[in-house]
Write a structure and sequence with these properties.
Layout: H1 21-45, H2 51-72, H3 80-97, H4 102-118, H5 121-124
Helix pairs in contact: 1-2, 2-3, 3-4
């Protein structure tokens, strides 16, 4: 099978790697989800005292996840899924500094993230500036 016919993540030399990368991503993603749950909980219950800290956790872990992903696979930065991440991070930062918009931003980011994450691979991996 030619390498261009292999599924996206299985092409040879598709990623740079380092020992423990996968487990670091698992830990960061798990902490990121803790932040998502805590922000959602704060917004739904009105207990706003930990919303900012939880959003900061989402922002920090999101930056870490994105940095590792772009380092591992630089072309991710020009694919639709990769281009979407900085927008999500800006939205999370806006939830911290513009608390009056936090609820709307949270639900928008949650739904948009789900759509982009679970869209077909050919959509997620569209590359900017490239005709298909």
């Amino acid at each position: 099978m030619p390498t261009h016919d292999l599924p996206h993540d299985f092409a040879p030399s598709n990623r740079r790697d380092f020992p423990g990368r996968r487990w670091l991503l698992v830990a960061l993603r798990s902490l990121h989800l803790v932040g998502v749950v805590l922000v959602g909980s704060a917004l739904l219950t009105g207990h706003d005292e930990y919303r900012r800290g939880a959003a900061a956790l989402m922002l920090a872990t999101g930056l870490g996840l994105y940095g590792i992903e772009v380092w591992s696979k630089p072309r991710h930065a020009v694919e639709l899924a990769g281009l979407f991440i900085p927008l999500k991070l800006l939205g999370v930062a806006a939830m911290i500094v513009l608390p009056q918009f936090a609820a709307g931003l949270f639900w928008l980011l949650l739904i948009a993230s789900s759509v982009v994450s679970h869209a077909p691979a050919h959509f997620r991996h569209l590359r900017a500036g490239r005709d298909h």
